[in-house]
Amino acid sequence: MEIINVKGFVAFTLAIILLFIGKFATQHSPLLRKYSIPEPVIGGFVCAAVVALFYYFLDKQIEFDLAVRDILLLYFFAGIGLNADFKSLISGGKPLLILTALAIIYILLQNVLGVSVATAFGLEPILGLMSGSISLIGGVGTTVAWAPIFEQMGISGASEIGIASNTIGLIFACLMGGPIANYLINRHKLKTNKDDDLDIGISHENHVNLDHFSVLHAWLMLNVSLMIGYLLDAAIAETGLQLPMFVSCLIAGICIGNFRTLVLKREIKAGTKKGLSLISDICLGMFLTMALMGLQLWQLQSALAYLSTVMILQALLSVLFTVFIVYRFMGKDYEAAVISSGFGGITLGSTATAIVNMTAVTQQYGAAHRAFIVVPLVCGFFIDLANALIINWFVGFHG
């Protein structure tokens, strides 16, 4: 097997081309817009499919250097923070607690389902956690962290099952968020919000003119937020608490934005806000495109029967829980529908998937400011802590 390494600059350039493909397809496909399929998904899947064809038919494995991908995610969350005001944060207090409680309940259900299916297939019950919250809510990082522990316990194949489950979950998460919101909006005839500016990106109907100073000012604010975010992350690590880096950048952005408005009494200019939204939209789109580029679809062939069964059931659980529980408890309004589209991304994909789902929905139906405050905080902070505790409990119980 020949391995072809694609360097970072080339991979980044390819991701731009793939994102253009996705945007072109969305602009020319009413069906894709109707169900709010995220633009990065299309180009990313095309690349993943081509890479798989090279692997199977040409005996060549293409590997991309995706180091820049994680920096793009930091820019995105810094932009979310800069656009957030304390008034929105305070108003998001109750929904934040409710969504966190629902996420904890869901983590438990997700792991019970994974353990049950693994047991039914005659596998070690604990292996089901790799098709539960370890790989789905936890993502690749949590999977890689837990796989050696499972191997030390004498459970083989944990890494392969976890990575394959994460791959399938990411695909499902990208495709289900938009249709969930579309169903809820039309089923309940919800009043949308096309009058306000979007938190991320630009709606499909609008075209905004920007001057280069507004974009440059937005870029400067993002860079300062990242610098403070790095310092904040180091300070948090000194306490022994491990949080994703993007949480620190999100907090830094919130502090900088509100320092301007509350202390300096200077509002962020409208042009700069639009610049922040555009840069954040591009960074998020590039991040997810590069994440999908890196999928190695051939890893799905191991334990195919088990993976097919458990992941179909996990996707079904996610849809039912989101539509019948999350939507109702989050207020049964348009904001709740957008949050529901993000919850599908949380449960099967990642924080980025949740936000890109919500971005696609709001570009179609209008702004949902509370959703873009509540979901990132739940994804990036509370759910990671809860997931770590619950995983440890399940391992201790079944170990």
From TrEMBL:
Pfam families linked:
Glt_symporter (PF03616)
Primary site of residence: membrane
| Top-level taxon of the source organism | Bacteria
**Residues spanning the membrane:** 41-58, 70-90, 96-119, 126-149, 161-185, 216-237, 243-263, 275-298, 304-326, 338-360, 372-395
Q: Where located?
A: Cell inner membrane
Bilayer topology reads: Multi-pass membrane protein
User: What keywords are assigned to this protein?
Assistant: Amino-acid transport, Cell inner membrane, Cell membrane, Ion transport, Membrane, Sodium, Sodium transport, Symport, Transmembrane, Transmembrane helix, Transport
**UniProt cross-references to HAMAP family, sorted A to Z:** GltS (MF_02062)
The text of the family note is: Belongs to the glutamate:Na(+) symporter (ESS) (TC 2.A.27) family.
Q: What does this protein do?
A: Catalyzes the sodium-dependent transport of glutamate.
Protein name as catalogued: Sodium/glutamate symporter
Q: Which organism is it from?
A: Psychromonas marina
Identify the gene encoding this protein.
gltS_1
